[in-house]
Amino acid sequence: MKELEPEQKQNQEVAAISEGKEEDIAETKGVFDISGGTRAFLSKEKAEELFAPLLHAESTFTDICLSNWSFGIKAAEVAAHALEAKKENFVNVNLSDIVAGQPEADALQVMEIFSSALEGSNLQSLNLSDNALGEKGVRAFSALLKSQSSLKALYFMNNGISEEAAHAIRELLPSAENLRVLHFHNNMSGDPGAIELSHIVRQAPNLEDFQFSSTRVGTEGGIALAEALRSSKSLIRIDLRDNMFGPEPGLALARTLKLHTNLVEVSLSYLGLTDEGALAIIKALADSALQLHILELSGNDITAAIAPALAAYIRSLLQLKILNLSENELRDKGTVTVSQALLQEHENLEELDLSENKITRIGALAAAQAVANKVGFKSLNLNSNFISEAGIEAVQEVLSNGIAGVGVLGFMDENEEEEDLEDEEEDIEEEEGSNGGDEAESTGLSDLEISK
User: Fold this and answer.
1) Do 33 and 65 meet the contact criterion of CB atoms below 8 Å apart?
2) Which of 55, 186, 208, 244 falls 20 to 30 Å from 427 in CA-CA distance?
3) Whose CA is closest to 327, among 378, 271, 255, 283?
4) Are 183 and 156 in contact (CB under 8 A)?
5) Would you say residue 5 has pLDDT above 50?
């Protein structure tokens, strides 16, 4: 659970807010949103004031957002009375971050109070994020979860979802058939939790937006999720960042991504894919995802050996807005290859991140030239490379002479002086030769097979 300010400051905040302000409640038609005030504990008296509009006979609120307040038992009971009276109208309910700083026993009771009040409502969206649920918390929402068979969006972000909690979600949720959005982030699921939740994914044939980032998932769980996603062919957004997949789940994911032709955003950073997994994914995307706006592959140990394949795919991505290849091993050779692919067209490109790629002035200038004359370009990140002061000045000159301007260049304070990387470049060329790099360069894509 998130910590609030020190007790004395909390009491001052509550006293100030208890004076009552109209802006405490959003005035958007159909939206009851009390999250805009100062974050604090909610008193029973303030709750009675805030929730009074829900009890009006003519109220027709459909969207409820109670975030940013910490409900004690008394305040929760007041809220529950109002919610239960109008729950047949509710479509989207956000109960994220509602028990911060409460003792565990009180927090669980508050969850049960809200769960009972909303049981039987016919929601399309439910957000239970930022409540440090764990298994106990998930089960505290049992009544609510069991009654939701038509959910289109479900959010469990920063909830401490362990294997046991993931099993509880699988057990309690009656149906995933209508799910379009499923978000899990910053949990402790690991492989066992991912396997549990993969059963929900398998039952969601209409899934469009799937996030399972920062959840400590390794090879086994990564494969389970990748295979489960084959039940759907409608993904628009996928975010699996910051897990411990390795190459094998990358290969499994590649076979899955070939089925999804509507992808607009693919975020696969920090998965340890290496060249093998990344190349398989690039080839799969080249066969299916030509409308991509966002591609993130940072932190995957990608080398210059697969840069030709990556560049060939990038040339076909005329809608691309964000390309993040930071914290890889592209070096100058790979950076030049990728930058040349961006040089022509790609007028929608807004952000390019090539930080931490062992780039010297040669690669940096190629990147700058690639974006200098793009009208809507906003951000070029070349930090944490081996670009000398003279190299930085040369990059700044290229940008200042272009349409984008030097203002698009990010901080360059962590660059080191250029190193002699000739030996390393020779090693790359030898590696490319042993892996059929010449063929990849001539065809643009490796002949790596992705079995069905």
Assistant:
1) yes
2) 244
3) 271
4) yes
5) no
Please enumerate in sequence order all residues whose Cβ is within 8 A of that of 17, keeping only pairs 6 or more positions apart, or say none: 24, 37, 38, 40, 46
Report in angstroms the alpha-carbon separations of 229 from 173, 288, 430. 18, 15, 37
d(CA 34, CA 64): 9
Burial tier of 23 (Cβ tally within 10 Å: 0-12, 13-18, 19+): exposed
Cα-Cα-Cα-Cα torsion 405, 407, 413, 415, nearest 10 degrees, comes to -30
Give me the residue spans of the domains in the chain. 19-175
Alpha carbon 277 to its chain's center: 20
Residues making up the chain, counted from first to last: 452
Helices (H) and strands (E) in the chain — how many of each? Answer: 17, 15
DSSP designation for 235: -
**Averaged over 252-266, what is the pLDDT?**
97
- pLDDT digit string (tens) for 154-171? 999 999 899 999 999 999
pLDDT digits (tens, 9 = 90+) for 320-347: 999 999 999 999 999 999 999 999 999 9
The amino acid that residue 374 corresponds to is K
Q: What share of the chain in percent tops pLDDT 70?
A: 86
pLDDT tier at 126 (50, 70, 90 boundaries)?
Answer: very high
Residue range 444-452: mean pLDDT, rounded: 34
Q: What is the Cα–Cα distance from 381 to 89, expressed in whole angstroms? A: 47
User: What is the separation of C-alpha 368 from the centre of its chain, rounded to a whole number of angstroms?
Assistant: 28
CB of 369 within 8 A of CB of 339?
A: yes
How far apart (Å, rounded) are the C-alpha atoms in residues 360 and 330?
Answer: 11
According to CATH, the superfamily of the domain at 19-175 is: Ribonuclease Inhibitor (3.80.10.10)
Pairing of strands 237-239, 63-65: unpaired
Tokens encoding 416: 């080191």
